[in-house]
Amino acid sequence: MLRQFFPIFILIFINGKWAKTWGILIAFSVLIFFGIIYSIVAFFRHRYFIKDSKLIVTKGVFKKTRLEIPLDRIQSVNFQQGIIHQLFDVVKLEMDTAGSAKNEMELYALEEERAQQLSEIILSHKKATSKKDREINTSTQERKRVFTLSLFQLFKVGITENHIRSGGVILFFFIWLFDNLRELGLDMYGRMEEYAPDAEQVSQNLFIVFMLIALIVIVSLIISMVRTVLKYFDLNMFRLADGFVVKSGLLNKKEYAAKDRKIQMMEWSQNLLQSMAKIYELTMKQASSVQVSDKRALKVVGLSKPDIEQTAAYIFKKLKQEIDRLVPKKVNGYYLLRRILIAAYIFAPGMIATLYLGITPVTIILTSLLLFIYFASLLKYYKKKYAVGENVVVVEGGTFGRRREFAEVYKAQAVEITTTPFQRRRKLATLHLINASGAIIIPEIPFDEALQLRDRILYKVESTKKSWM
């Protein structure tokens, strides 16, 4: 209904005699009046209830719409509570299904308690038992808190965030700002040199560079901290029935929920700073289409290793013992060779040209970058491992950090084997295990082994009686 008052704000900002005429005032008033009437009628005609294990929604003023969604199809129930929602103590509820390209349904301005009840019914797959099946059951299950992000952990998450993105944005902003100030006649570079030590020009330039780097680092840290606080403040993870509920946010509070059996993949990761701080990021991926995959992933940050193990035990249950017994093995050495050759093809021409032209500093920079890429490729190769058990697939990776992905074999929807001409010469292949949330990729493995794994996985999928969702 608040949107119907937008014409008033437009009217306020109109200047001149047109804004003072009675015709314009009457026209806006009529539009606002009919807009309010339409919103009131639409509000009272928008209803929802649960019947026969289906969520039924009816809405519409001139065109009536009836939407029926089986509870089994609902992959997740997510809440959003912006500042306006918080003022009125209501939430926006979003429900997703595996086959939709966007949110299947959104319910605006629900009472928070009623929204929680609806979420719990869907997660536990209960039927409404009140009269005529038109009111949601007011009985709720207790949430068991399994993780809370403390203020100290929140600080660690902010400090260990990826600051390169923030730093890059700041660097380009300063370059743009300095160039525009110079066009206005203000030479910032000259001003900075005035405050530099009275030494050789090279020393002054180095001082300016170090000052800029220090400024960019400090501002990047501040931006990362602010973004982290806004996104992950008051982060809590709960167990509800056989599923997870993740809640976080400062100004825009969000809550995501998913059942264990609808989680297709689990992944934990650490960058270099997080590894030093001994904290992990956890992502639980549900069945999704490409357009909304990010929204359907439950992400929790600042966890410890015991927290990761506890979450894995909830999701995989008895399979946790099988995961612990798996011994991952390395991929073929061609995984490293391919990256080394690609880097050499890219950098070699530039290095030869600058060396021939006598541009020694550029040659040194290109050589340093090439050596760095070689070192990173070597780390990536040593950390790239895989293991395929009877029921679980595990893939490890990372460069300066670490990452580990888990998926149950029976949830695979397709298995693809791809080969390049270079792989075929070496009898290698890349295996893609595809499920409803994406794909786990095992690169550079023997072709015969890829065929055996494909047949084994497909046999498991066809012979199991479990539902992947």
Model description:
It is a single chain. With 469 residues, this protein is α+β, with helices and mostly antiparallel strands. Among the domains are: 2-44, no CATH class; 155-232; 334-381. 45% of the residues lie in helices and 27% in strands. It contains 15 helices and 20 strands. The strands form four sheets. Strands 6-5-4-10-9-8-7 form a seven-stranded antiparallel sheet. Helix 5 (151-159) crosses helix 8.
Key words describing this protein structure:
alpha+beta, 27% strand, seven-stranded antiparallel sheet, 469 residues, single chain
Which segments are poorly predicted (pLDDT under 50) over 5 or more consecutive residues? 15-19, 126-140, 196-200
Largest sheet: 7 strands, antiparallel
Helix fraction bin: 40-55%
Helix/strand/pairing class, anyone?
A: alpha+beta
Strand residues, percent = 25-35%
Spatial shape: globular
Structure summary, number of beta strands: 20
* Major beta sheet, strand line-up: 6-5-4-10-9-8-7
Return the average pLDDT rounded to an integer: 80
Tell me the distance between the termini. Answer: 38 Å
Count of helical regions? 15
Q: Nearest-angstrom radius of gyration?
A: 29 Å
